[in-house]
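Supplementary Methods S3. Input chains for the assembly prediction are listed below.
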Amino acid sequence: MKSSTRIMATASIVLVICMMSSVLLLRKLDQLRSGGTAEEVLYISSPTVLKRSSLGYGGLLADVYWTRAVQYFGSKHHNGAQHYELLAPLLEITTALDPQLLVAYEYGANFLAPKPPDGAGMPRRAIELAEYGIRNNPNEWKLYYQLGFIYYTELQDYAAAADAFDRGSRVPNAHPWLKLMAAQMAEHAGDLQTARMLWTTMYQSPQDRSIRANAAAHLRALQVDEDVLVLERLVNIYRDKTGRVPNSFSDLEAAGLLRGTATDPLGRPYRLMPDGHVVVRVPDDLPFLKKGIPPGYVPPIKPKLLPSD
Amino acid sequence: MSMRIVHIASNTFREAVRDRVLYNLIAFALLMSGAAILVGQISIDIERLVVINLGLTAVSLFGLVIAIFIGIGLVSKEIDKRTLYTVLSRPVRRWEFIVGKFLGLAGTLVVNTVCMAIGVFVALLYVSHHFQKADGWLLVALYFIVLQFLIITALALLFSSFSSPLLSAVFAFALFVIGCFAEDLRGFASMTQGITRWLAIGAAYLVPNFSALNVISSVAHEQPVSGQLIFYNTAYALVYAAMALCGAVLVFEHRNLK
Amino acid sequence: MTAIEILGLEKTYSVGFWRKKPKRALWPLHLKVEEGEIFGFLGPNGAGKTTTLKLLMGLVFPTAGTARILGLEINDPHMKAQIGFLPEQPYFYDYLTARELLEYYGQLSGVSAKDRSRKVSEVLERVGLPDAAGTQLRKFSKGMLQRVGIAQAILHDPKVVFFDEPMSGLDPMGRREVRDLMEQLKHQGKTVFFSTHILSDAEALCDRVAIIHQGELRGIGAVADLTSSVHGNVELVWQGNAVPQSLRTLGAECHITGDTVRAIVSETRQDAAMEALRREGLRLISLTPVRMSLEDYFVQQLKPAEATVEVTS
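Predicted structure tokens for the full assembly:
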């Protein structure tokens, strides 16, 4: 059986070599093709045709496209991209194949509308997607909420947001919160409190980690905005009282205006600038700030979203 | 040694032809001409697109069916019908038999594809009335389809060496479908954690990578195919087919025939 | 030189899906076949004849033991180039014509291209199928397929030929032709190893036989020696139709046909029988020793209680 053992040995060795080579080749191919699979989306002129040609297996195909959408956005966002042209078609095809895939609408609401690098910067398409979702799932109150969310955060169209919340509140079993928000829009649209309520609800979404992380970052930013507002008001009170700017927060403490150290949502103490402004120490960790930004700070290309807590 | 492989290969080819496999070309020709005429009549400005998409998809699917249906029987049929008895009692090594069978079926598929390619180009000429430079990329797409056939044939042969025809067909078809989503599978795998991660990654790399070999839609939209992609795809297809063939040789080498 | 040497070849199959039960197809077999002889491998159906042949052809792998053909190992291609094999109830690629099939087998056996065409025609003549060369095998009758089978086994002029049930499916004419062919092969100096359960063929053809039953070798030796080794009978023929009582008590089998009686008595009782006839005044016409037929030997060996009998010739 000598020749037989020789053949077995040769075949085994060749097999192992081939396996290793195929892994290496695959990695190279994936590199060459990165984005290639997603780009095919541009060639699908009609999602309805795709749905029909999937012969009833549209649900599975939708899941595939959904995964591609998440990977596409996730990897690009991680690298701080400025263009996300494929996100909208990917989500549109996903929802065309499976109109009940609710997480896709949520993803669209959070990441289609905002401007790059936080999103694709396509609020109109985001609204179309949300409305499509509502047409196909008229009793899902969350979709109305997401629609209102887009109007509020990206377009600042408080009237339209109110309308969306109102429509949603009429859905059976709607969260009573929706009616509240509709009313809130009317009077207190610009309030920090309103914004916080919106982002808190989005944060409580059980569906997607990146959505939660994004919401958490926004909530932290709102917290900083509020803290800075409060702290700077205290600084002004101190200035009125003593006629000078405090040197540090301990001065405020001594004056009985502040109790304990003032820390940002990540536990780092705020910094008191000589001109009386309050800023954060590590602005890289706190994207979306409107106040408390150190002077001359240039935000990095890649926004940092800490994992949601 | 090498001549015996050639003889086995040409006999396998002869068997496929006498089995009336090439009649599928008639069905294909009917399909293409019907589509071309229909599309030419409607003239919706995307005739070229339709002919290429339909044509190449048909080439791919017809060939896939042939590869699987003949491939699964390559070894198992010879064992069942005992035609192997008089072959293996001759100075033919078992691995030569496997390689010969593979080359025979691969050759059949290449011939089949060439004929179909002519059909596609004729249909294209009919609807577009002239060839464009971009039509050259069609040849690359067809070449990639042939590479897909090599992989599927090798896999079908592997299954044929130890499994019944029905199971082999199911496995081969399943691997084809999964292979079309291989890139997504690798994406999935990289998102998992723990033990599942290693299993998923292992499976994702083991599955044949058909997604990279499918350039039908980009070729239909006149996108070029990079030379690097051609090179690496060729290397991958050959390596993968070799892998499956080695598996088949190892299984068959010590198989007791009934 | 020894053409075939089987050294302790055995085969056990594991039967069953979960709990594998071992099933013995062949107990350790020891056998030698010399060059130039016709060797018969006899046994009832399921005895292990085909298993032995499959082991020798390398189609099935032994659980233990080895074998050598022409001094070479079983899986050696050099050895395979010098042997021919006709399996039981052969199947061939039915989409090929007889000529195409033989050409293909010729290619695989290494027959050179320039000789191939001629040899194919010759061998088709030899097996009696000169006109069927261009007919597809799927149109062949069983007898014709058997002939094609023989043709492919001898096409490349092998030194040792293995036939598994070569007579199956053939009419008496066909069987005669195959017998003649096997004699011819022997005269050409080839070794023929064939298995069969038709004992008359074995008796007529073989130099030596082996008998196998339930996977075990039960007897081996030259036909003549095997049949004469056991006590035979004698046949007495006398005129008249009277059977003496004394003969009946001797245990004779008597047949009365017209004017003569035939009786078969054991050899040892021969004298007593003749004495009985003489006393009755019956006229003895002939006294002939009846050799035990191979069949009788065969049936005897198949009884489980019998020990094996080895006779070297």
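The radius of gyration of chain C is 24 Å. The CA atoms of residues 208 and 229 of chain C lie 14 Å apart.
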